[in-house]
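ok so I'm stuck.
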Amino acid sequence: MKPTIKDIAERLGLSPATVCNALGGKDGVNEQTRQEVLRTAAEMGYIQDGFSPPERIERAIIHVIVARKPSLGEVYPRRCSALLEAAESACTAQGFAVQISYLDITAMSAEDIRRRLRGCRGEGILLVATELDDIDLASLSPIEVPLVLLDANPGTYPFDTAASNDMQGMGQAVSHLCEMGHTHIGLLYSSVPSCSLRRRREGYRNALYANGLSPDTSLEIALYPEISRAVEDMGRFLKNTSSLPTALVADSDILAVSAMRAAALHGLRVPQELSVVGFGDTPYCLLANAALTSVREDAAQIGAAGAQMLLSRLKSHRRRGVADHACLTLLSGTCLILRESVCKQQEC
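replied:
not stuck anymore, here's the structure
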């Protein structure tokens, strides 16, 4: 029986897709692997001696790297998928090949991270930085590879960036609660820091000031960004607090839903006794007894915009022969999706 691509893949410990790409002369397979596939395929009788794959058309490569801290688990899976799909589509539409990889930075030094990024052989890098904090972002500079950050707004760091307007989103959430008569508004924030989540915390405080309220740090509650642990963290707060807010705004839907579960365990009704607003408009919104009001982001728009920023930089660099130094920041707008988790204070 003639061997199959699956048989070749199993012998080499490769995926069938990699074997198929190697035999078809497609991008995404290094030369050593390609030669091993051709040699094995000939030995197994899948191809004849002297077989030559179709001539490859070399395309410039854009690296899309997802920086991860796996200890967090899959906190943002759907968001990351939308970013990647949009970025890849924008790059391939302009004739670039895209290589997607994941980088665990948990135990990496600043120099290790820079070395890893410099080692990317391609035109430029799109770095999905959802989980990175300010210290992580500081470690990225300086590198000589053209780079655009996706899903992180670093502020003072010298990078082109495409991200959500986190300040705007928090402003929409807090203002809605104020319009509903709430004046005692708390914040649920992640105990694992990131650049974007820091912006949301700033946005919460600024929005309170804008609505004539003063921030109260005793109402800023740190929760671990995983549902079971966040429920425990919120339960401890509810057990020990002497000043319960009438409303909470969270920097993610995970924290909002976790707080709602903890509230139910302590006999509190949402929204009658506690109104809650999330951030992200993820599927978590529909998991609670009262569907969660949440700030909606457009991850696909961020991915596409970031890719276009990088491609524009590359064209400018080729035309002028020098790199541009003025960094650009594109903030994607947000909107508040109203559901069942908020009610007017006088009706609660």
